[in-house]
Amino acid sequence: MFASNNLRSPLGRARGLGSAKEGLHHWWGQRLTAIALVPLTLWFVAGIIHLAMGGEPYEAFMGWIANPCNATLMILFLGVSFHHAQLGMQVVYEDYIGGHAWRTGMIIATKFAAYGFAALGIVSTLICCFGG
Amino acid sequence: MANAAKPTSRPLSPHLQVYRLPLAAVLSISHRITGVGLSLGLLLLTWWLCSAAYGPDAYDQAMVYIASPLGLLILLGFSVALFFHLCNGIRHLFWDAGRNFEISQTKRGNIYVILGTIVLTAAAWLLALA
Ligand code: HEM
Ligand code: HEM
User: Is B63 among the domain residues?
Assistant: First the structure.
C-alpha cells in the first residue's frame, strides 16, 4: 500500500479519509434547520388552511402574502426547508450510491437545484409583495 | 475466506419471505421516505409561488391543477408526509439529546408519532375543508 514509489506521505494519504470530514457541521446544520422547521411548518400549514378556507383564490393569496410577517416567514420557510432538504438528500445519496463520481455528481446537482429553487421561490414571494 | 471451512451454526439473517419489520423499523425508514418526498414537494411549492408571481391567470390555472383529484391526492400525501416527518423528527431531536432510548419509551414514542400524524392530518383537512 505505502510503497515508496509515491511521494505522498502516509499522513497525507490518511488525511481527509477519516470519518470526521465535515460531519459535525452537516449534522449540526440538519438539527438546527429541523428545530427551526417545527414552528415554521406549523405556521405554513396554518397559512395554507387559512387560504383554503376562503375567498377568491388569487386575491386571498395576494392579500395574505402581502402581510410582511407572512412574507418573511415564507422566505424563511423556503430557505430553511430547502437547506434542510439538501442536507438530508446528501445523506441518502451517501448511503445508497456507491460510485464516487455518481454520488458526488448527484450531491452537487441537488445542492445547486435546492438553492436555485429556493431563490426562485423567494423572488416569487417578493414579486407578489412588491408588485408587477 | 473463500477456502475457510464454513461454520454450520452461525446466526441466520432474517428469512425475507417471512420476516416482518418491527414497527420502529417501519417508522425509521418512513422518516427517510417522507424526507425524500417532502424534498420533491418543495418543488411544487416553488411552482405554486411562481404561478402567483406570474399573475392571476397563471395562478388560477395552477389552482385548477391543485383542485383536481390528482392534485388533491398529492396534497393529501404531502400533508401526511409532512406531519409524520414533523412528529418523528421531533422524536429524533429527543434521541439526539440522548433521551428516550429505553425500548418501552420507544414503543410509546411509536404510538405518539402515529397518533400525532393522524390527528394533525385529520384536523388540518377538516379545518381546510370546513
Ligand atoms: C407545498 C404545500 C402546499 C401548497 C403549495 C398548497 C397550495 C394550495 C393552494 C394554493 C390551495 C388553494 C387555496 C385557495 O383557495 O386560495 C390549496 C387548497 C387546499 N389545501 Fe393546500 N397546499 C399545500 C399543502 C397543504 C397541506 C399540508 C394541506 C393539509 C394539511 C393542504 C390542504 C388543502 C386543502 C384541504 C385545500 C382545499 C382544496 C379545495 O378546496 O379544493 N394543503 N392548497
Ligand atoms: C419541507 C420540509 C422538510 C423536508 C423537505 C425534509 C427533508 C428531510 C430529508 C431528505 C431528510 C434525510 C432523511 C434521511 O437521512 O433518512 C431529513 C432528515 C431529518 N429531518 Fe427533515 N424535512 C423536512 C421537515 C422537517 C421537520 C419539520 C422536522 C422537525 C423536527 C425535521 C426533522 C428531521 C430530522 C431530525 C432529520 C434527521 C433524521 C436522521 O438523523 O436520520 N424535518 N429531512
Answer: yes
